[in-house]
Amino acid sequence: MKLYKSMGTLFVFSMLALVPTGCEEDYMSITNPQTEQKANTYADYEIDWAEAADSVSTAFIERFYCSSNRNGADGVFSYSEYNNQNNNGNCYWQQAHAMAAMVDYYNRIKLTDPDQAALIRSYFKRWYDKRGNNYEGNASWRGASGFGNDFTDDTLWITIALLQMYDATGDMTYYTAAKQTWDECVRPRFALNEYGWLPWKMTDLGANTCTNGPGAIASAMLANYAKEAGNIDEYNRYLEESQTCFDQNIHVMNNDGTLDNPPLSYTQGTCMEAGRLLWKLTGNDGYIKKAISAARGQMTATSMNETYEDELIMRDEGTDENNSIFHAVFFHWASRMAIDREIDAVDPNIRKELTRYVLRHASYYWTLGIDKSQVGWSDSYFSVKCTEPREAGTGGSLGAYTSAAQALEAMWIIERNQ
Question: What's the sign of the alpha-carbon dihedral 207, 211, 217, 222?
């Protein structure tokens, strides 16, 4: 159990059941430490990002990962807390982003908390064994790995999640499944679109940004693995596929760096990471410059933001379980750009701008986004806006909670690695 200070109130916020601290605890010593903490830009005290991320991520996993059978859902994430609405049938692409947040949590604690790390690895395996809740009934679309889906973008998000699970654990099972899913379920679809881009789904062959963004990331990751293994033919093939996908993103980029109309934060984030990875692979500054344009588009465009306390914060992009998770995707990839020091040679300011933007959101999530008091936290949930909790009594949202957990994990990554 972790104790935190928040504006003079004692609160407990973890995956463990809430219990009193006990009479022997000195309340004043906890809530009023002798050395006053320094304020950050958006809070009246300095936030310990490791403790804040621990608090939110452990509660996130407890509430939304079905570690036991919850109304038929087991070993996967659920749309509603504890799957109490029993509505998890088509929860698939959201699994990838919830998994991304859990992987970031795992990477942060795996060297310092081996017991918890072992538990999370068991969750990875159970999620894998359940094929991430893939509901696709067409065996040819599922592929031999079992992770393929009618929706190409859903298949790609899951492929990226598997690769990140591999990176975190070194377990080749996840890499093999990801590679097999791309090779068998994704690659043949390039031929189905009239422009040679990846189609949205098998039943709608038009190309879109939400498919080709993650397509560029997944194939760039696979290209890098092939390069490291010395397999030049595979490297070149994956690289060409990544470049093809990224071309679609460039095609729809507006003058202000946003993509499409209306632009969405998750496609801004995938364009950022795709351009960064292609720059790493090729050394072509054009890729990172497009990625930086996408980052600035997210942070500065009025179409992407609203004003709070005279600064811009991400707008409400929708409360359903598709749109509510968009912010999580941006935070995840923003942290990768924010810690890449080599970018300074191309643009010396973008990492500072990203850090402040993520700091703003993470701070507001932590200080304003949820009731952390002993009485209130057990029935309090994050909303799609970082500055206010979800309406009391309405339960939780996987998308909104994932976004909050990812923002805090991203802030820890940035603080630790800058």
Answer: negative
> Tokens at residue 49, please?
């990002």
In whole angstroms, give the CA distance from residue 343 to residue 350.
8
C-beta neighbour count of 376 within 10 angstroms: 14
Q: 331 with 361: CB under 8 angstroms?
A: yes
Q: Supply φ then ψ for residue 350, to 5 degrees.
A: -65, -35
Low-confidence ranges of the chain (pLDDT < 70): 1-38
Alpha carbons within 13 A on the beta-carbon side of 355? 18
What pLDDT shows up at residue 376? 87
Q: Which of 51, 147, 49, 48 is nearest to 99 (CA)?
A: 147
Q: Residue 265: what pLDDT?
A: 98
What's the pLDDT at 13? 41
pLDDT value of residue 105:
98
Query: pTM of the prediction?
Result: 0.91
CB–CB of 15/61 below 8 Å? Answer: yes
129 phi, psi to nearest 5 deg: -60, -30
pLDDT at 38: 54
User: What's the rounded Cα separation, in Å, for the pair 358 and 351?
Assistant: 11
22-58 burial code (b ≥16 CB/10 A, e <16): eeeeeeeeebeeeeeeeebebbeeebbbbbbbbbbbb
Closest residue by Cα to residue 106 from 177, 147, 53, 33: 53
DSSP code of residue 186? I
